[in-house]
């Protein structure tokens, strides 16, 4: 073949699938192509290289997408050209992240300053953020007004991210006296109606409420008989203060879900520790035999501190839900998914599971998959055959909690206040 420039139209038979941005090699327009390699119907395992021939654009795309899935990147068409007869004569496939992003935001409004200077209006900025937040003004609009007022971003000492964190921190406390008073008044009234009503409130150094736990008399009575296994989940609802609603759910002798306590809290180890200690005191220092949660590390740490003798189980549904996200990019994903489900749900003994796991990892060459390796380290928390010797009240997931959440939908939402 004769030499030709890379930008000149070339026929499909001479196309090079080398992608400069994905590290698959480079293409030199002055380089003479070697004799073409004929590709048969089986393209699996073949690595793109100079001189490959294809019969159609469809075959090219299919081959390169298959290679991209194996290597873990997406594919997009960067350039395509057609000749005078409207036939495709040039095609360039590249990584989906190829190219350089050019921001449309004016330089004076960018959220990453070239240098920082001493801010002369920090207090004024905080007051503006607080006032606009109370008025419901979007944070990005408030931040842009501050930038304009100060004459450019370089005159501000903080980023938009810092402003967002500040507002989030303010929302996580009951800063409005009306809401704080309404909460205290309601709890006092409930205690007057029934002395068995239990509540605890956590405050910050400025005496503002940051965490709350409460349990009524009916739930405390149910704890005596049905508090041996509980489901705990914080994914239901985040209120106007960015504080998740955290219910404790159990199962009664009819198989019905029952509420065993509620909390409004932040999501870190110290907060979960405080909440679990409140629940333990309410229960007369009798820890549950088992607790089911998601894979939250903060929950795991707090349970180890407060419920040291309690068996901690992870929600199996949440784990299996992540399979498409973690393994979906693999070439043999469907086969892997079927084999994993069969292994998890059908193994009846720990010995068979461990042997099956080793075979599963080896068959699909998944030794370096970090997600699977992490799961294997904690198999006693989620694999059914490791947990079947203990009573779990028929629960293997936190969906009992999610079912109870449907009850609250008719009364509260993310904009509900405490008044």
Tell me what you see in this structure.
- The structure is a single chain.
- The protein is built from 15 helices and eleven strands.
- The chain has 419 residues and is an alpha/beta fold.
- It has four domains: 12-95, no CATH class; 107-171; 177-315 and 396-408, Nucleotidyltransferase, domain 5; 319-381.
- The strands form three sheets. It has a seven-stranded mixed sheet, sandwiched between helices. It has a two-stranded parallel sheet with strand order 1-2.
- The longest helix has 17 residues, at 177-193.
- The radius of gyration is 30 Å and the shape is flat.
- Mean pLDDT is 75; it is low at 1-41 and 108-121.
Number of domains: 4
> What spatial order of strands do you see in the largest sheet?
5-6-9-8-7-10-11
The CATH C-level class name of the largest domain:
Alpha Beta
Percent helix: 25-40%
Which sheet architecture does the biggest sheet show? 7 strands, mixed
Secondary-structure arrangement, i.e. CATH architecture of the largest domain: 2-Layer Sandwich
Q: Indicate the low-confidence ranges by residue numbers.
A: 1-41, 108-121
CATH topology of the largest domain: Nucleotidyltransferase, domain 5
Q: So what's the overall shape?
A: flat
Mind telling me the C-alpha Rg?
30 Å
Strand content: 5-15%
Order of helices and strands: EEHEEHHHHEEHEEEHEHEHHHHHHH
Number of strands: 11
Number of helices: 15
First-to-last CA distance = 81 Å
Mean pLDDT, all residues:
75
Secondary-structure-based class equals alpha/beta
